[in-house]
Amino acid sequence: MNKEFWNIVCLSTNEVLPIDAPNWKSSSDNLLQISHGLVFSPDMIDIEEQGLWRYKSMLPIFSNKAIVSFGEGMTPIIQIEINRQKIDLKLEYLFPSGSYKDRGATVLISHMRECGWKELVEDSSGNAGAAIATYAAKAGIQSQIIVSKNTSPNKIRQLEMLGAEVIKISGTREDVAEEAQKRAYKTYYASHCYNPFFFQGTKTFAYELWEQTGGKLPEEIFFPVGNGTLILGSFIGFMELLEAGLIDTVPLLTAVQAENCAALIYHDEEKLSTTIAEGIAVKKPVRKSEILNAIRYTKGRIITVSEEEIISSWQLLASMGLYVEKTSAVGVAGWIKSNYPLNSLVPLTGHGLKNG
Question: What distance in Å separates the CA atoms of residue 98 and residue 134, rounded to the nearest whole number?
């Protein structure tokens, strides 16, 4: 694949950077995205690959030798019944590190290997850090993961076992990000929020769903949303499928948030507090305007659920043999609160073994 098709672009000024630039923000201090001149087609799928790297022709990695992979992807879709209503679930917790964030990590770390970077820093509530540390370990890249002191002990233990240097910070999720960004001036910032390569990985969720359903996509998808890496990646992927003429419409992309920390609705931080869904306990989503745009474009919605509704859905899923972390139950809680809309899907995003 030729690099000439790919660029990094500033979302605000359209400043163009080469695809191998180490930047995580533009020269005007704005967010970045990746652009390319490719049109996806079914014959671009590498059917020899079982996982998400079957879509490597649409990913910004140019040498197969650079790919850092455990064969991840193609997570199963199952159907369950709740109160006699059917819902499809995509089991995104069945990734090597235990969450969907492996999608972003495999692409981002492969990009780092291709460019020859040997060290990274990342800030995380746990899952993104674990994903980055997992793939960094395989690639022989040194990882420094900044977390809150309130992060689940199981997630911290996972990071430490993977060989990451774990630095615990007091304060909010935003304080954790600020510390990582200070360190990013001396090393590569492998941020799942800022780094645009991460979203090139999470867009494969849309590709997989399209392929697994034979193009018969659900009408609505309920995502647990904090920083929005899965809903935004999915939006990118679905738009590429739409532009290629492979689908006629994009599913409604619906964001489900904890009432206690519904940053997409409330602008006043005083109205935001802690939640048991620690994976989405984000008071200042970096790409908030992009998340809102994806929701508006697809005619999705924002739903908030209480702590009690999250616990109830979490216990319900466990009673069906689906042991996920509490954050994963948020999407199902939103679907139930919406009165069980038909032809819907929820990604179960993180494994229950990550619970504190």
Answer: 10
The class that CATH gives domain 102-195 is alpha beta
Can you tell me which residue has the tokens 């420094």? Answer: 144
- Topology of domain 77-99+198-354, CATH: Rossmann fold (3.40.50)
Of 27-31, 137-141, 242-246, 329-333, the one with minimum mean pLDDT is 27-31
Residue 42: closest CA among 235, 249, 244:
244
Rounded CA-CA distance 331/223 in Å is 5
355: amino acid identity, one letter: N
Rounded CA separation 89/322 (Å): 10
Range 35-58 burial, b when 16+ CB lie within 10 A, else e: ebebebeeeebeeebebbbbbbeb
Short-list 198, 209, 291, 305, CA closest to 251: 209
Q: Is the pTM of this model over 0.90?
A: yes
Burial of 81: CB neighbours in 10 Å, binned 0-12, 13-18, 19+: exposed
What digits encode the pLDDT tens for the residues 75-109?
999 999 999 999 999 999 999 999 999 999 999 99
By DSSP bridging, strand 119-124 and strand 220-224 are: unpaired
How many angstroms separate the CA atoms of 240 and 254, rounded?
Answer: 19
